[in-house]
Amino acid sequence: LDLRYITKTCCTTHMVLLDWMLSPLISKESKAMKRLLSAITCLTLLCSACSSGPHTGEPQGDPTAGKDLNYSKFSDVKATFDNEHMEIILPLNKYMMSTSEGLITLSANIYNNNDCSVARGVPSGSTGDGVEIKPYFQYGIWNKDYVSKYGYSIDHDVTKIRIVTLLPHKEYSEAQMEIYSECQNTVRQLGDFPARMPEANTIVAQADLEADSAWMRDEDVKKWHGEWEQCLKDKGISIPKDYYWAPEVPGDKEKEIEVALADLDCKDRTGYFIKTMNRRAQYQAAAIEKYKPQLDEYRKNLDAQIEEAKKVLADHGEPLPSW
User: Fold this and answer.
1) Which residues pair with 243 in a beta bridge?
2) What is the pLDDT of residues 34-58, one digit of tens each?
3) 87 in helix, strand or coil?
4) Please, are residues 143 and 86 in contact by the beta-carbon 8 Å criterion?
5) CA distances (Å), origin 160, targets 38, 105, 127, 323
6) Distance of CA 314 to the CA centre of its chain
7) Is residue 121 within 8 Å of residue 217, measured between CB atoms?
8) Which are the contacts of 16, defined by CB distance < 8 A and separation ≥ 6?
């Protein structure tokens, strides 16, 4: 099972939930509107809620993708563990929107959509409290300070950042909601969503797919995973057959934290997690070499959209959100 499917399903799930919550207000489906609302939710969660706990099934990736990637040329490339922002920085990250860039483009899109509605006589949307930034544990836990408090849970914010959230009022009439929905379909949306993930059907997504597929097939990665799993077994902790990135999480919170700390101890003892993420970084570096002209052009276009988004915020007197 490809982990990208699980992670993107997270955003899809929240899009369905938002559609259900707003269904009394929306007279007809609007893909762009749901994309905007989903982007807010996915940025809030950073798609961590669906990817921080134990995944089901051993990841396989694409069986043919990335076979020409040679990681050994990039042995000096390493993953960066950003404990402050609770992210793992990999080479392809520079071609994706950062969290800050995601906040900027999302805010600009919200203003543009709201301006379109207001120009057509719809009252300005209501302002929310901001977005909550969650820890990023897509391939298992790794931050000891966080895990010591919360175990495998990602229900606790790393931080909360205020952005403009001009969403529809419950008091909107059906006609006003129709206008709001039409604006979502006609206003150009800036940036890629969600942040910290490659936009589907782009050169970044292709490079990411090839790198991750090669990484998942790597015999060293499988060996390192086996060493970590054996360490857990030696501690009396097993990983069920249908799990891969974490042992089964106990229902009792205190026991959950004990298992989580044992998980981290085994990662430290075997070097499994650092070695695995470094190898993933090396495959990404190889994919960047393969697609560099296309990736650079993609990022150039994305940068132009981000600059356009910054101008929108400046025109509305809105400070740039950052993280």
Assistant:
1) 56
2) 545 554 444 444 433 333 333 444 5
3) strand
4) yes
5) 18, 17, 15, 9
6) 27
7) no
8) none
Residue closest to 102 by CA, chosen among 295, 309, 296, 298 = 309
CA gap 190, 35 in Å, rounded: 12
Kindly provide the residue ranges of all beta strands, DSSP E only, lying in the chain, ordered along the sequence: 80-82, 87-89, 131-133, 159-161
Nearest to 164 by CA among 121, 210, 105: 105
In the block, residue with structure tokens 């209501």? 126
The answer to whether 257 and 151 are in contact (CB under 8 A) is yes
- Measured between alpha carbons, how far is 160 from 162 in angstroms, rounded to an integer? 7
Report residue 61 as tokens. 């990736």
CB atoms closer than 10 angstroms to residue 27? 13
* pTM for the whole structure: 0.79
Q: How many CB atoms lie within 10 A of CB 261?
A: 15
d(CA 189, CA 101): 14
User: In whole angstroms, what is the distance from residue 290 CA to residue 293 CA?
Assistant: 9
2 neighbors 60 (Cβ within 8 angstroms): yes
Local confidence band at 2 (pLDDT 50, 70, 90 cut-offs): very low
